[in-house]
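Quick review question:
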């Protein structure tokens, strides 16, 4: 009996030691920033509701911003390590200006529509010259893509229309109160509209195809990381990408959980939160494939062609290693 008890204690001690050795001595800290509005709301709400970063051995601190350009400014100031939904246009500018950051993911296709009130006299994008257009602020990818489309496809330069900035609810309010002639709204917002009847003039995808002669959709947002953090914690960056891939998979497989997380995070009616689940597969990506790189580089070229960007984004501004290595981790 005495020997049996000692044996059990010994086996238990060995098992505990094995578990301890399998865990990191201390979780890697990471500061993750995002704008909890627009499409980023859905992904961010599900991310925060779960333990995705913790499961990858990361001690995460979430930092939220009231402005779509907040994550870009914060990562430049070293106030955050990773922005999973940083505006692509802002990321290009930071890299061009020599800020030590790298794009490690493409995360949000620009599923945005140009819309007008149903009874508006505006019948096409070409009629928006001299008009007021509500959209995300200057510096956002929505503003950059919309401006490039208008300039290249319709000859309407940035100075030929008035950009009225705001977050999604404010943009809808502008349109409802007839303070603007048109708006560029994300697909989730358009679907959520009930009281306000709108008419779609065109989608970003349709207009982008006219420019590129391809079916690819530009990206509104990218995953952006501090270069110094990436160099110091290369495995941490891989684990962060794994965590985001797990969020993507979870949202696809658990739409009810998406609805619950979004409704709670944003205090939305269940019907409005449901839209994020319904459009989950359209709106979120966690990748940096050769095709993604081609799209992002094409965006730089088109922003330059539209007179919106004068800098350069060298190949060193992209780092595919965290994504590629993440594919080996299930």
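Suggested answer, residue by residue:
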């Amino acid at each position: 009996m005495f020997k049996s008890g000692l044996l059990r204690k010994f086996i238990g001690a060995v098992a505990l030691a094995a578990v301890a050795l399998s865990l990191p001595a201390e979780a890697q800290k990471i500061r993750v920033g995002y704008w909890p509005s627009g499409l980023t709301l859905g992904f961010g709400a599900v991310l925060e509701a779960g333990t995705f970063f913790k499961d990858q051995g990361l001690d995460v601190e979430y930092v939220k911003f009231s402005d779509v350009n907040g994550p870009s400014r914060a990562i430049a100031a070293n106030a955050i390590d990773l922005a999973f939904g940083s505006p692509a246009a802002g990321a290009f500018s930071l890299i061009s200006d020599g800020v030590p950051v790298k794009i490690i993911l493409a995360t949000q296709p620009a599923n945005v529509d140009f819309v007008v009130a149903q009874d508006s006299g505006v019948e096409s994008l070409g009629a928006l010259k001299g008009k007021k257009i509500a959209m995300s602020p200057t510096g956002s990818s929505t503003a950059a893509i919309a401006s490039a489309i208008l300039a290249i496809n319709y000859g309407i330069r940035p100075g030929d229309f008035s950009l009225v900035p705001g977050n999604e609810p404010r943009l809808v309010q502008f349109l409802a109160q007839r303070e603007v002639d048109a708006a560029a709204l994300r697909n989730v917002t358009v679907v959520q509209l009930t009281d306000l009847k709108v008419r779609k003039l065109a989608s970003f995808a349709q207009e982008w195809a006219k420019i590129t002669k391809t079916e690819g959709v530009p990206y509104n947002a990218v995953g952006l990381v501090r270069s110094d953090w990436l160099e110091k914690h290369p495995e941490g960056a891989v684990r962060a990408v794994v965590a985001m891939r797990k969020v993507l998979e979870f949202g696809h497989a658990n739409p009810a959980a998406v609805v619950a997380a979004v409704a709670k995070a944003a205090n939305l009616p269940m019907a409005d939160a449901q839209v994020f689940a319904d459009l989950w597969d359209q709106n979120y990506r966690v990748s940096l494939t050769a095709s993604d790189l081609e799209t992002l580089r094409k965006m730089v070229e088109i922003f330059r062609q539209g007179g919106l960007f004068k800098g350069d984004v060298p190949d060193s501004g992209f780092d595919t290693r965290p994504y590629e290595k993440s594919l080996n981790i299930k």
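Why it works: The chain has two domains: 25-110+219-326, 112-212. DSSP finds 16 helices and ten strands in the chain.
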